[in-house]
Amino acid sequence: MFALGLASPVSQAALAQAAGQASGYVWHNAVIGGGGYVPGIVMSQAERGLAYVRTDIGGAYRWDVRAGRWIPLQDGNAVSSYMGVESIAADPHDPDVVYLATGISSDQPAAIWRSADRGAHWRVVPVPFAMGGNEPGRGLGERLAIDPNRTSTLFFGSRHDGLWRSDDSGANWRKVSRFPVQGLGRPGRGETHGGIAFVLPDPASGSPGKGARRIWAGLADPGATHLFLSEDGGETWRGVAGAPSGLLAVRGAIDAAGTLYVAYADAIGPNGISAGALWRLDNRAAGRDITPQGLGSGGVMGLSVVPDRSGTVAVGTIDRWRPGDTVWFSRDGGAHWDDLDKHSRRDVSATPFLAVPGNEADFGHWISALAFDPFDPGVLTYATGATIYRTDTLASSGTISWRPWTQGIEETVVISLASPTAGVPVITGLGDISGFVHAELDRSPQPTFFNPALANTNTLDFAGQRPEVLVRSGSRLLHGENATIGLSVDGGRTWRPLRVPAIRTPDQAVGRRYDLEGEAAAVVGADGETVIACIPVPLIARDGGKTWAQAQGLDLGARPVADKVDPERFYSVDFEGNRILASRDGARTFAPVAGKGLPDGLGGGSIWWREQPYKLVASSVAAGHLWFQVGETLYHSTDGGESWAPSGGGLKVELFGLGRPAPGRDVAAVYATGELDGVRAIWRSLDGGRNWTRINSDDQQWGLRFRVISGDPKRFGRVYLGTDGRGLLYGDPVMAGQ
């Protein structure tokens, strides 16, 4: 038996690392609205309007009816792994009690969280069974279950280590030794298991205080049996015969009569599912196939029932790429089905990125989460790989109207960002949904990142003296797209593709279009005239990409940086030679500069990952002002790289960016994430890095999952923080009197 618990509940602040006093900063999310995969929706059966959702990398949220928005529940958490939520369970009788199962992958920490005040404070219990909140199979569930007749008893179906049980509200856990499947063990790197996909105590099989007698569990691992039943409160178990052959049990739902519905699929998803089925079993475990006719390719996963005896059930398809995913709806236990996509409309004006250019938004994909409102069967919600939709008109006989239900949910991954020297506040490069020009931070922006269409935008740059000129690059969204670099001359409203010719490196016999591989960073000079494509042999164009020439003096893999003031100046790092290179002729030729003050090793031949911010940054304060991160130390140059001075201050820098100088100063404000005196946090320096002030609090941790940071050159004090799953955050200093 494994028993581990914390003695008493703790606040989110206490969960975070001990830290010093934070300066007065207020933080907000820039509004995009959703933007990521929501694998689970849980509607409270204890209170009308109360709901929870879980995300794979951005934590959990609670719907607040009075505020009319989702409230993030884990922003005070400082453990990265805990932002991947494997399962949620809401107490069926006490609306204040909720549990989370957290752990992003099998090689990261896992814990069970319990709150008695709807997520304002948490007790966190580390557990020995691994989770996979961001692994394949994260749409299975729900794995965490509360016995509705004795709510101090919980069950958790793990991926790798069998079934677990707690009889003291999650404070201590023991493995259920008599469950027939004890787990497949921890997988190798890059692998995973589905494990026990769901656990469902039957509320009709017990009495208050004594617990449910009948408990179902579904298995999503290979084997002869995928559905198990206990009729003695979980002490002994047997396999249930008659299920579809060769399919895994991926989702389950049970109604007040004890009728069980099970969704089956041939893989754990969210990708790779090609077949599925839906079965209904009565309380004697007699089952029959009720799969909707016309399911076609793909499978089913999202599943919900109205928890009464009406037989109202809905199931969502997954990986049905043609004709596309849908939700099937039945009022008679699956005897007859209605395809909701055939008479649905979606209003995505609040999150316009969901609309396909020239068309309305489609029904969505990866429908793993689906939920009826237990107090109003006319309300149905489902989640996709990019949003959550809700309808209040399911009971009507006409068109079903869906709207995004994402107010407060920001789940994007911000890979790159740029705050130009004039114009809009910020431009973002995102994972999966490309990115945006954010003219307003409190409204979801219009999508403009087309021509070329990119899935991930890995790099962004702007011309320091003509900030309406922008370049972006990343990975192709469409297989037939023939460019991955885009140029805009109107601040990002419109774009045109830049196609870089094939090149032949010394070890190749045939030329190759390296720019199509998503690795080519794009750079633009201060006047907007010179563009550099950072393919293995960097090429420059000075005519809008019509003709390209090789930049002389750069080694393979170089990634130059443009001066933000002088259009003739560019800089690069030669990691193999441990030296700084500079150009004063518009990037035509590069030559070494003295580089006095830098350490002997600049990175040992580092090759930058395509989604990693480059660590040489030019300031917009004056020509030749550069910042360079070597290891965990920042160095500053004011003479184009000839001489450098370490910033000092003791901060171990992880990410950094520059902003407008403080009034009366001539050095850029520096914003950074990193560790100082044992505290990992967000910091600001106004004196070149000699002194640092913390600008986030213990309640503003966001899992410490950060991708990129930058100040605003137009507005002193403003900082933009790109997170890995909590969207774009921006902070401003609190003014006196506020």
TrEMBL record:
It comes from the Bacteria. One of its GO terms (biological process) is polysaccharide catabolic process. One of its GO terms (molecular function) is hydrolase activity, acting on glycosyl bonds. CDD domains: Sialidase_non-viral. InterPro entries: WD40/YVTN_repeat-like_dom_sf, Xyloglucanase_GH74. SUPFAM superfamilies: Oligoxyloglucan reducing end-specific cellobiohydrolase (SSF110296). The keyword Signal applies. Belongs to the glycosyl hydrolase 74 family. This is Carbohydrate-binding protein. It comes from Novosphingobium endophyticum.
